[in-house]
Amino acid sequence: MRLGALIKKDLLEEFRTRYAVNSLLMFAVTALVMVSFAVGMNPLTGQLHAALIWIILFFSAMSGMARSFIKEEEKNTAPALRLAAEPELVFLGKLCLNFLLMLSLGALVIPLYYILLHPRPGSLAPAALVIFLGITGLVGATTILAAIVAKAGSKSTLLPVLSLPVLLPLLVTAINATGTAMGGGTLSDVSQALQFLAAYTVVIVTASLLLFDFVWND
Amino acid sequence: MHLFLEQVSKHYQGRVIFEAVSGRIALHDSFVVTGPNGSGKSTLLKILCGLLRPTSGTVRMEQGGRELKPEERKYRIGFVSPEINLYDRLTALENLAFFTAARGLPVRRSVIVDLLEKLQLKDSLDQPVGQFSSGMKQRMKLACAVLHEPPVLVLDEPGSNLDDRGKQLFENTIRAQRQKGIVVIATNEPGEVEKFGQKVLHLGRAPGGPDQKGPPGGI
Amino acid sequence: MLWKYLLGFYMLLVTAAAFLYAPPALGLGELSRIIFFHVPVAWVGCLAYLVSMLNSIAFLRKQKLEYDRRAAFNAEIGLVFTILATVTGAIFSRYTWGEYWSWEPRQTSIFVLLLIYGAYFVLRSAIEDEEKRARLASVYSILAFISVPFLVFIIPRIYSHLHPNPIINPGKQMEMDARMFRVFLASLAGFTGIYAWFHNLHSRYLKLKAKFEEAEKHA
Fold first, then answer.
1. Are residues B69 and B156 in the same domain?
2. Most exposed of A83, B130, C79, C117 (fewest Cβ within 10 Å)?
3. How high is the ipTM of this complex?
4. Which residues in chain B are contacts of A11 at CB distance < 8 A?
């Protein structure tokens, strides 16, 4: 399967350098520790916990995903890829890879957050679902933006600047719904947010697929 | 099979790189592009491969009496260029297996190993490409370009970084490719022009003048 | 040429009417007069973004740089008007709700518009090649535009609602005095006229610039 080959290639590269994973991990852990020191023993509301979690996730995502296309442009491997696979395929490959990367990050950061800051657990299943869909949308919107940044001279500081306006509806919804769930909200309390996150992801990924050719090819 | 260049021009940031280049390349042709540095040889090859859009003019490719779409053309070309690299972290074998699979072709280890053997890289097939010498990298790029047996092989400065034995390997590949399809080479080495220049296109500015419109390229 | 003066005179009349003809709104007092300027300015800020985004789509379809230049200058006009809307909004906010900024839905929306404009120009300034800049900026503009309806949907559900209700509620009664409403509409038309004038000026400037560049090439 062609998509599988693209993902496998990136995983192999990642496995040998561990660049993205390392920088992502260090970033997330640094942010977590800082937050944990700042909060200390003060009790926070569910909303505040949710906001902190998403701030950590957002900025780690920015530092981790920026590399996904920059490395192809910097090392001049991008033209070889252009001659071998259709743009849609390349996009989907990077999308899947970023998704795997961010899911592993989430699987690490969230438990660590609970251990370090011990918020009230609230309702776990709705919270997990919101965070899962939120990460999906985050990856869906950021992947094409990472490609734009790679084409714009690989200035990785550009990514958060470009991402924030596009991601704002997603972040606002995700923070709010995560807060609701951490405050003990049930599945039906967050169902509207879940639908919203899914709709956002579908729309933005479809648009990315249509527009990616313009970004990827000169 | 034919490859047509029709009045192809490229401007970059308001500067004219070349203007109204035309040419017709047929099956079994080897087509050489020459010209001084900055005359746009590499740019022309990139346009030919579909990696770059021309400012005006068109590139067309016909195969079996059918005209190919621009995006189809891209996948029927093998391109060796100093501006294109393989994945440094992957081994020779992994690189070639990846590019085969990414093209949607069946990956056969024996085919890849045979090819590496032909290019005298068999001993290094499990070594990361990043550790290769520049001559080995150049041969590796050639392996990647002919891997999918493209009807058109495009080589940008193929002789660079190669020793005599490496040059011989390239020459053999070029001759073999001419039997099956088309070869396009950009080079400034007089020896190579003489050897392969069945048709020669000279790109360059009009001598002695700041006139950037350049002479119309022709054969 | 004449209608520029007519527009100036018209805006003079609208300004005078806003202060002398329209009565102050119940509850808000003299402060309510700011809507004759604040709302039209915000409207132009949104309109310019819409026009800019449509030009971006046109660029991607036709690949003519002219459309991208239009997209860019519409964004410039839009940015100025959006800043004006933000400032007038903040003043209004300060004297009705006590704070310059209160993350009220409409304030948040205009803030996001500012963010989009800001990111758009940062992206443009990061790319030197005009063609590439046009493509990437166009794609970004469209992506950002897609996120706006989601925002409009989500924000009022989350933040408290302080803003005066929309002036015209579909299906409901108009909440505005007839004289106020007349001045409001006149101002809306006037500011749209100013936008059209800017647009026209800039289009002519671009055309002249293109002509000069063309002439320089041939000189």
1. yes
2. B130
3. 0.92
4. none
